[in-house]
Every structure is written in C-alpha cells, then in structure tokens.
Design a protein that fits this description.
alpha+beta, two-stranded antiparallel sheet, 4 strands, single chain
C-alpha cells in the first residue's frame, strides 16, 4: 500500500550538487522517497516523505534538509487530534504546520 500524505507541503529538500552518492538516504528512508540515479540520489516521490528526518541525519554531505515533525506530518496529527481534515498550507505562511 502506497502511503500518501498532503501534496506539495513537505519540507524535504535535496541538493544533488552536494550529494556524494553514498546511498544512505535510500537505505534509511522508510517511505522509499529516494532512489539512486547514476552516482547521485534523487527523489522518486517527494510527497511520500513523512518528515521523520532519518535521511538528513544520515547525510554526511549535508545534501538533504527536512524540518522533522512539521509540515505534512504535523497537519495530519493536528487534524486527527481536532477531529478535522488534515490541512497544511505552507504557502500562506501558516506557522501552525510549517
């Protein structure tokens, strides 16, 4: 089953120029967000990211950044707690989720 979260709100960023091709991000990501393309990592499905931070914590080249515990994951949790639909509109500057 492919787990989907809210689209276009994840804080995950990959700087392919900094990537050294170690492949740790591919190994540690529980959602299979990363793949190796040639000798560098690439994002296969950015919106599948659950913002756990494992990729960024294991990237020695500092090619990956993610604000763990915010964005999509936070929007889903807050919606569950409030009994509402999960929402996150980072483009509006809504600091409650981003």
């Amino acid at each position: 089953m492919d787990m989907r979260y809210l689209e276009n709100v994840v804080t995950l960023e990959l700087d392919q120029e900094k990537c050294t091709g170690c492949g740790l991000c591919v190994q540690v990501c529980p959602q299979e967000v990363f793949v190796m393309e040639g000798k560098r990592a690439a994002m296969a499905d950015r919106d599948a990211c659950m913002e756990c931070g494992a990729c960024a914590m294991n990237c020695r080249a500092e090619a990956i950044s993610v604000r763990a515990g915010v964005g999509c994951a936070s929007g889903i949790i807050k919606g569950f707690i409030r009994g509402t639909e999960p929402t996150c509109d980072c483009s509006s500057g809504n600091d409650s989720c981003c």
